[in-house]
Amino acid sequence: MPNDLGGMTVLVTRPRRPGQVLCRLLEAANAVAMHLPTLDFLPPHDIDALRLALLQLGEQDWLIFVSPQAVSESVPAIRAAWPCFPSTVKFAAIGAGTKAALQQAGYHVAVCPELNWQSEGLLALPAFQSLTGQKMAIICGEGGRDLLARTLAARGARVTPVVAYRRVLPTMDVRPYRSALSQGKIEVMVATSCEGVKNLKTLMGEQAWPLLKVIPLLVISERMKASAQAEGFQVVWVARNASHEAILAVLAQKKG
Q1: Are 186 and 216 contacting, i.e. CB atoms less than 8 angstroms apart?
Q2: How many CA atoms lie within 13 A of 193 on its CB side?
């Protein structure tokens, strides 16, 4: 873990809880952290569909959780519907953070990619190659990527999306962040989702865009880099994954 970022000023756009954790780690590494959560979360529009899907989870062969948010938003309702799952139900997580969240909730995670914490990483695992007749529930948010569901279905699985939440643009006063930007007090920005990057651009507004787009933006995948560049961000760095350790490592490398 890097231990000295030499006063680097970092704007963190991760959602509230993980963003707060990252800010504390940055401050411990002698950085100046500012937190602007660019995503907020609400219940899904179709609550009845969620309730029905939850009642059918015990019939599934696999429950696939796509993010820590998917865990936190769904586990209370899952526990209410299924205090104890049949032994045939297996849990899968797309990344280490999601795996840790499931384990903290008391669930054993059968599979999780070691390095590529995206849909592609999960789809590359041996357990998800030949899936004829297997039932799989994907616990996710509204409007996310459909690559996972499409590919699993193409490999023979019967896929049920379980939409547990929706992402929304936060309502907040961004004037302090615009002021910091205009005064040159933001050296680096950190984002961990394509939607979060788009929301950052929206929240900061057109007037701030000429300054915002030239600040280095640290993202967590090549796919995110391409998306950020398409939005117009000019300097985009890529961490090896979404872990705080990987993010801090890139910041330390750039600072050095």
Answers
A1: no
A2: 22
CATH number at residue 214: 3.40.50.10090
pTM over 0.90: no
Residues in the chain: 256
| DSSP percent split of the chain into helix, strand, coil, nearest 5 | 45, 20, 40
Nearest alpha carbon to residue 97 among 118, 83, 128, 77: 118
* Strand, helix or coil for residue 91: strand
Helix or strand (DSSP H, E) at 93: strand 90-93
| 116 in Cβ contact with 91 (< 8 Å) | no
Q: How confident is the model at residue 1 (pLDDT cuts 50, 70, 90)?
A: very low
Same structural domain for residues 196 and 102?
no
**Are 137 and 195 part of one and the same domain?**
no
Last residue in a domain, options 167, 201, 221? 167
- Structural domain span for residue 14: 7-39+172-255
| pLDDT tens-digit readout, 215-253 | 999 999 999 999 999 999 999 999 998 899 999 999 999
Q: Is residue 44 part of a domain?
A: no
Say if residues 32 and 6 touch (Cβ distance below 8 Å): no
